[in-house]
Backbone:
């Protein structure tokens, strides 16, 4: 299982610092959606230039104009770009077309899809995304009673490659791996740690 760090900060200099601290221990550097909104697509170029050996994931969460938005992110240097799994099929198809043009990967973010998630995961996989991200966003995580357990069954049931994001910690990363995920996405557990490098290293050490 790969480890992806979500650089969920609003300033490029903070993102570059977090990337520098953690790159040694992670496989994928994710520009979080707020970072891309705050700093623009040039932030993708800057992170890729600083870490050409890492996969750079642009969490565009595209909901419309799939081909245009994915093309912009790939042109800026992204290796992986997200499209909303809840978007129109043509939006997903468009993002996939841009991915094929650049020889890169599109990931469908399944955030907000709770009912019939397995069925939608299968549909977007047939539309050509490389994998799906089974995801509880920060607002869902803040709801009383949230646990990551709500994310652990659907990937295996759908029978397609998937990542998991939703507040992964050192206490939950083993369960994420056991669920069959190919990528674990960790944001807050690394970003909010007193020592982000040590937190990333600890998460990586728990992956078999
Ligand atoms: O995608 C994310 C969220 O929607 C904010 O953009 C996070 O990067 C993702 O959830 C991982 O962060 P944590 O949940 O804090 O681990």
Residues:
């Amino acid at each position: 299982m790969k480890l992806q760090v979500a650089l969920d900060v609003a300033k490029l200099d903070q993102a570059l610092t977090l990337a520098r601290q953690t790159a040694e221990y992670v496989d994928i550097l994710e520009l979080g959606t707020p970072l891309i909104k705050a700093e623009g697509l040039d932030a993708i170029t800057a992170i890729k230039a600083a870490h050409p050996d890492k996969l750079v994931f642009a969490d565009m969460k595209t909901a419309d104009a799939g081909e245009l938005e994915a093309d912009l992110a790939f042109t800026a240097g992204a290796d992986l770009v997200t499209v909303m799994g809840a978007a129109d099929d043509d939006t997903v198809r468009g993002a996939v077309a841009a991915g094929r043009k650049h020889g890169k990967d599109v990931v469908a973010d399944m955030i907000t899809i709770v009912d019939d998630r397995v069925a939608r995961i299968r549909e977007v996989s047939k539309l050509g995304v490389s994998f799906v991200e089974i995801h509880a966003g920060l607002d869902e995580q803040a709801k009383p009673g949230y646990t990551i357990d709500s994310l652990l069954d659907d990937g295996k049931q759908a029978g397609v490659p998937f990542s998991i994001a939703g507040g992964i910690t050192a206490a939950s990363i083993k369960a994420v791996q056991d669920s069959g995920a190919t990528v674990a996405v960790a944001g807050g557990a690394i970003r909010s740690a007193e020592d982000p490098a040590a937190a990333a290293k600890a998460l990586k050490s728990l992956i078999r």
